[in-house]
Amino acid sequence: MKKDRTKLALLVSDSLKAQAGAAALSEAHEWVTPEDADVLVVVGGDGFLLHVLHEMLERNLFKPCYGVNLGTVGFLMNRNSRRTIAERVARAREVEVVPLEMDAVTRDGRHHRFYAINEVSLLRETRQTAKLEVAVNGKVQMEELAGDGILVATPAGSTAYNLSANGPILPLGSRMLALTPISPFRPRRWRGAILPDSARVSFRVREPDKRPVAAVADQKEVRDVAEVHITTARDHRLTLLFDPGKTLEERIFAEQFQV
Predict the structure, then answer these.
(1) What's the CA dihedral at 243, 247, 248, 252 to 10 degrees?
(2) Contact 124, 149 (CB under 8 A)
(3) φ, ψ for residue 240 (rounded to 5)?
(4) Under 8 Å CB-to-CB from 1, ≥6 apart: which residues?
């Protein structure tokens, strides 16, 4: 049975482009509050949509999101159409996105937990090369990785920072994670790994006094970390809506053939 999508809430980015473009949209439908909505219509760019998704994760309020691109890239968004917004939302296909949960332990022993829809990255804080121990499911796989850092990307995020770091593009339904080094110095020839999303990935910072490292879950940064543990947050699944023939899965697939 198809879920009801008649009650829509409108969320608009602060950018001038999004505000101007949403003026006509705001008069094209009878909007409700996000709490009462079946679907959130998010107007702006990928950054604003990620912001909305993170707010839902923090509030434990999960609503399908239909993005309207009035931003810069708009990889996670839908393009303009002559159809009414109600028609577009009713026809849209659902795509499930499962975020990562990061538990970053700072050198003073405090735990910082954040979610990441795209990736969790560990980055050197100073000019000194980061040195990291890499473990999967409690077993050390690499005693020392030296470089600018490392990241763990979801399939949804595999075309973002992960791709820029020469990581693999993961099909959306693959249930895999990309483990990708960032400018590795030693070992030079290691290009990363593809892991099942059931894996628990852990990093321990070596020589943290001399080589401080920050952990970043999408936009949330924790500095001076000692350890970072990453798991898939299966109980916090998110839903994105896309116009037929233009789903995130199809876009990720097409990205593999871009030259």
Answers:
(1) -140
(2) yes
(3) -110, 145
(4) none
pLDDT score recorded for residue 28? 83
Q: Where are the alpha helices (DSSP H) in 100-239?
A: 161-164
Position 2 confidence tier, pLDDT thresholds 50, 70, 90: low
For residue 117, give both structure tokens: 């829809």
Tell how strand 213-217 and strand 39-44 pair up: unpaired
Tell me if residue 248 falls in helix, strand or coil: helix
Between vectors from CA 166 to CA 161 and to CA 169, what angle results, nearest 5°? 75
pLDDT band at 61 (very low <50, low <70, confident <90, very high): confident
Per-residue pLDDT at 1 exceeds 60:
no
Peptide bond into 187 cis (omega under 30): yes
Catalytic residue among 46, 108, 218, 235: 46
Q: Single out the residue of 188, 204, 116 nearest to residue 152, CA to CA.
A: 116
Structure tokens at 48: 């604003």
* Between 72 and 79, the higher pLDDT residue: 79
Global confidence as pTM: 0.89
46 is catalytic: yes
Quote the tokens at residue 1. Answer: 């049975």
Give just the sign of the alpha carbon dihedral 1, 170, 118, 51: negative
Over the stretch 214-235, which tens digit does the pLDDT of each residue have? 999 998 999 999 999 999 999 9
Beta carbons within 8 Å of 109's beta carbon, 6+ residues apart:
none
Q: Where does residue 125 rank: exposed (0-12), middle (13-18), buried (19+ CB within 10 A)? A: middle
